[in-house]
Specification:
Structural class of chain A: alpha/beta
Order of helices and strands of chain A: EHEHEHEHHEHEHEEEEHEEHEHEHH
Number of helices of chain B: 12
Helix content of chain A: 25-40%
CATH architecture of the largest domain in chain A: 3-Layer(aba) Sandwich
Shape of chain A: globular
Number of helices of chain A: 12
Strand order of the largest sheet of chain A: 3-2-4-5-7-6-12
Distance between the termini of chain A: 46 Å
CATH superfamily of the largest domain in chain A: Thiamin diphosphate (ThDP)-binding fold, Pyr/PP domains
Radius of gyration of chain B: 19 Å
CATH topology of chain B: Rossmann fold
CATH architecture of chain B: 3-Layer(aba) Sandwich
Structural class of chain B: alpha/beta
Order of helices and strands of chain B: HHEHHHEHEEEHHEHEHHH
Oligomer: heterodimer
Strand content of chain A: 15-25%
Largest interface: A-B, 45 and 49 residues
Helix content of chain B: 40-55%
Number of strands of chain B: 7
CATH topology of the largest domain in chain A: Rossmann fold
Largest sheet of chain A: 7 strands, mixed
C-alpha cells in the first residue's frame, strides 16, 4: 500500500506504462510546458502536474508538446493510434471537446465500425472536468453526458487514486478509444493504493457503502458528495447502497439493477445538468428493467439546466451537495 | 527522371483502373442500383497515382470524401472496394463504411473521410508515428481546395511544422469546393500553396493533370521529407470531371467547360500523348491497358452483384474490440 494523490496516480501510471510499452506516446498542450521559453522544457510539466518528468525521461518523440490546437491534438492521437501507437492525448480542460469534437466523435469513435472491424484505435483522451474552482462556464463543465451517447467510445470517470491506477492501466492496455475524465477537484485528494500490477476492468462498478434502504448512484466528484450523505443517513439508521459507476460506457447495468431489486428506491447523483443526461439515462434503464422493484419515484440530484456560474455562492448552489443528496434519500424513503 | 517501361505501364494501368472504376460507377449510380452519396475522382487520377507510385506499403495516406482514386492508387483491392460501395458484407469494410469511409490499414490507407478537412490532423499523427519509428517513412494527406479552408487543416499544418513531422500536404485544387468556385472561397486568390508556405513549410506547385509533373515533383518532395526536413506541401492544379456528388446537376459549370476539360485536361490523354510521342509505349499497349482495366471493373461489378449482403445482426458488431 502507498498513499498518493489522484494526480500522482495519473502521472505514475502513464510513466510506468511508457516504460512497459514503447508504443505509448503522450501529447498535448503544455504536457511539457516551457518549450520555446527561457525557462526551457519542463518549466510546467502539465498544468495539472500529471506529466511532470515524462519529457526528461522519454524525450521529445514520445512526449510531444503541441500548440493550442485541440482538433489537431485529438486528430494526431487518431493518426498515431491507427499507425499502431498508443497515444495519451491531454485536452487540458474537458470543455475543449467543443473545438475537437469532430475528431472525437466522427473519427476515433467510428473508425473501427466504419472500417468493418479491421482496425483498432487505442487512443486515450485525458481531460479535466467538473466544477468547484470558480472557473465558470467554459472551464467547469461535465462532458460525460455528451460522450456517453457516442458509440465507439469508452468513458471512464475515476473517483479515487486507486481507481485512477486500475482504470488507466486497463485503458492503456486495451484496444479501444477511451475518454479518461479526471475531476479537477480530485487531483489533490490522497488515497491508499495497493502495490503491484493490477487492473480494474471496465463496466465493473464499485460498492462504496452497502445498505438495503436506498440505492444511490454517483460518479467522479459526486461519489464523495454521496458518501458524505450516506454517512449522515447511516447515523439516522438509513442504509445506503452507494454505487460508483467508474465507467459510464460500458455500463455495469447488473450492479444497478441488482441493488434496486433489493432497495426498491433509487437516487441518482450527477454533476451534469438534467436534460438528456446520464441521470435520465439511468432513470430510464431502471424504469424499464426494474419497474416492478421500485417502491418510489426515482430521484435525480443534478446540476440545474444552466451553464456553470462563476461566483462562489452561485457555483455552490449549482453543484449537488451532501444535503441535497440526503434530502433526496429522505424524500424517496418518505414515499408510500 | 526517366521511368522504365514497366513503371510506365504500371502507372498508366492504375490511372486507367481508377478511370474505368469511376466511369462505371457514374453509369451504375444513375440506374439506382447503388445507394448512398458517391463523389467521383474522375479527372484527378494523375495526382493519386503520381503520388502513390513513390510510396511503400509502410507509408501512410489519409484521404477524402473523393477517395476512390487514393484507395486504388495505394493498393486497395478493386473488387473489395466495389463490393464495399455496393454495401456488401464482403466489402473492404463489410458494408459498414461505404464510398466515403473506405480504409485498408494493412495497405497504409488510413481512410477516406466524410468530413472535409478531418484528414490532415490524422495524417500528422501518422507522421509522428513514422518519425518515432525512425525508418524514413512518411504520411500524406490529400486535401482539396475545400479542405484548405478548414481550421483543422491550418492546425495540422502548424503542428506538423512545430513537431517536424514527416507529413506531406497534397492539395488537389480542382477549382470547386462542392458547388462553390475556388475564386470565391479561397481568400488567397489562385493560391493554396502560399498558405502552407506561410506556416513555414517548403512548398511545390505542379500541373496535376500531367502524371509526369506530379511524379517528378513528388520525387523531390519525398527526398526532402524522408531526409528529416519536416513537413512539406504541394498544390496540384487538377480537374473534376463530374459533379461534387453523383446526381449533382452541375449547373454552376460554364458553357462548354466539361467538354473543354475533357478535351484538353484529361490526364490519361496527356499521358498517352506524351509516351507515344516519345516512343516509350505505343498506342496498342495503351489500348490493351484500358481494356484490362475495364475487364477488372467488369469482374468487380459482377462479383459485387453476386456478393453476400449484410444481415441485421451485423449492425451490432465491430463497435469495440472488447465489449
Amino acid at each position: 500500500m502507498a498513499k498518493m494523490m489522484y494526480r500522482d496516480a495519473v502521472r505514475l501510471t502513464i510513466a510506468e506504462e511508457m516504460e512497459r510499452n514503447e508504443s505509448v506516446v503522450v501529447l498535448g498542450e503544455d504536457v511539457v510546458g516551457g518549450m520555446g521559453t527561457d525557462g526551457g522544457p519542463e518549466a510546467i510539466g502539465g498544468i495539472w502536474s500529471t506529466s511532470t518528468g515524462l519529457f526528461d525521461k522519454f524525450g521529445p518523440n514520445r512526449v510531444i508538446d503541441t500548440p493550442i490546437s485541440e482538433s489537431a491534438i485529438v486528430g494526431a492521437a487518431a493518426g498515431l493510434a491507427l499507425s499502431g501507437k498508443r497515444p495519451v492525448a491531454e485536452l487540458m480542460f474537458a470543455d475543449f471537446i467543443g473545438v475537437s469534437l469532430d475528431q472525437i466523435w466522427n473519427q476515433i469513435g467510428k473508425f473501427r465500425y466504419m472500417f468493418g472491424g479491421k482496425t483498432r484505435c487505442p487512443a486515450i483522451i485525458r481531460m479535466a472536468y467538473g466544477g468547484g474552482y470558480n472557473a465558470a462556464a467554459q472551464h467547469s463543465q461535465c462532458v460525460h453526458q455528451i460522450l456517453t451517447g457516442m458509440a465507439g467510445l469508452k468513458i471512464v470517470m475515476p473517483s479515487t487514486p486507486e481507481d485512477v491506477r486500475g482504470l488507466l492501466r486497463t485503458a492503456l492496455r486495451g484496444d479501444d478509444p477511451v475518454m479518461f475524465l479526471e475531476h479537477k477537484a480530485l487531483y489533490a485528494v490522497e488515497g491508499e493504493v495497493p502495490d503491484g500490477d493490477w487492473t480494474i476492468p471496465f463496466a465493473h462498478a464499485r460498492q462504496v457503502t452497502s445498505g438495503e434502504d436506498v440505492t444511490v448512484i454517483a460518479t467522479g466528484l459526486m461519489v464523495g458528495i454521496a458518501e458524505a450523505a450516506a454517512e449522515a443517513a447511516a447515523e439516522n439508521g438509513i442504509g445506503v447502497d452507494l454505487i460508483d459507476l467508474r465507467t459510464t460506457s460500458p455500463l455495469d447495468e447488473e450492479a444497478i439493477l441488482d441493488s434496486v431489486e433489493v432497495t426498491g428506491r433509487l437516487v441518482i447523483v450527477d454533476e451534469a445538468p438534467p436534460r438528456c443526461s446520464l441521470a435520465t439515462d439511468l432513470a430510464a434503464l431502471v424504469a424499464n428493467k426494474a419497474f416492478s422493484s421500485l417502491k418510489a419515484p426515482i430521484e435525480m440530484v443534478t446540476a440545474p439546466h444552466t451553464p456553470v456560474p462563476f461566483a462562489s455562492e452561485l457555483e455552490q448552489a449549482y453543484l449537488p451537495s451532501p444535503d441535497d443528496v440526503e434530502a433526496a434519500v429522505r424524500k424517496t424513503l418518505a414515499y408510500r | 527522371m526517366q521511368l522504365s517501361r514497366d513503371e510506365l505501364i504500371q502507372a498508366y494501368r492504375k490511372m486507367a483502373t481508377i478511370r474505368a472504376f469511376e466511369e462505371r460507377l457514374h453509369d451504375i449510380i444513375a440506374t439506382g442500383e447503388v445507394a448512398g452519396f458517391t463523389h467521383l475522382y474522375c479527372g484527378q487520377e494523375a495526382v493519386a497515382v503520381g503520388v502513390c507510385e513513390h510510396l511503400a506499403i509502410e507509408d501512410k495516406i489519409v484521404s477524402t470524401h473523393r477517395g476512390h482514386g487514393h484507395c486504388l492508387a495505394k493498393g486497395c483491392d478493386v473488387t473489395g472496394m466495389m463490393k464495399e460501395i455496393w454495401g456488401s458484407r464482403e466489402g473492404l469494410c463489410k458494408g459498414k463504411g461505404g464510398s466515403m469511409h473506405i480504409a485498408d490499414i494493412d495497405k497504409g490507407m488510413l481512410g477516406a473521410n466524410g468530413i472535409v478537412g478531418a484528414g490532415a490532423p490524422i495524417a500528422v499523427g501518422a507522421a509522428m508515428s513514422c518519425k518515432l519509428d525512425g525508418e524514413g517513412r512518411v504520411a500524406i494527406t490529400f486535401s482539396g481546395d475545400g479542405a484548405c479552408n478548414q481550421g483543422t487543416t491550418f492546425e495540422a499544418m502548424n503542428m506538423a511544422v512545430v513537431t517536424k513531422a514527416p507529413c506531406i500536404f497534397v492539395f488537389e485544387n480542382n477549382h470547386y469546393s462542392e458547388h462553390t468556385g475556388f475564386e470565391y472561397a479561397v481568400g488567397t486568390q489562385k493560391d493554396i500553396a502560399s498558405r502552407a508556405e506561410a506556416f513555414g513549410m517548403k512548398v511545390w506547385r505542379a500541373d496535376g493533370c500531367d502524371f509526369f509533373a506530379v511524379h517528378d515533383t513528388m520525387r523531390e518532395i519525398l527526398e526532402y521529407v524522408r531526409a528529416g526536413n519536416g513537413p512539406a506541401a504541394v498544390e496540384f492544379d487538377t480537374e473534376r470531371f463530374y459533379g461534387h456528388f453523383e446526381g449533382d446537376p452541375q449547373n454552376y459549370r460554364g458553357e462548354g467547360e466539361l467538354d473543354r476539360i475533357r478535351d484538353t485536361r484529361d490526364c490519361l490523354k496527356i499521358f498517352r500523348q506524351k509516351v507515344t510521342e516519345a516512343g516509350l509505349l505505343d498506342e496498342a499497349v495503351i489500348d490493351e491497358l484500358n481494356e484490362a482495366a475495364e475487364a477488372d471493373v467488369d469482374a468487380a461489378v459482377e462479383a459485387s452483384r453476386a456478393a453476400d449482403r449484410p444481415t441485421a445482426e451485423d449492425v451490432l458488431t465491430d463497435v469495440y474490440v472488447e465489449y
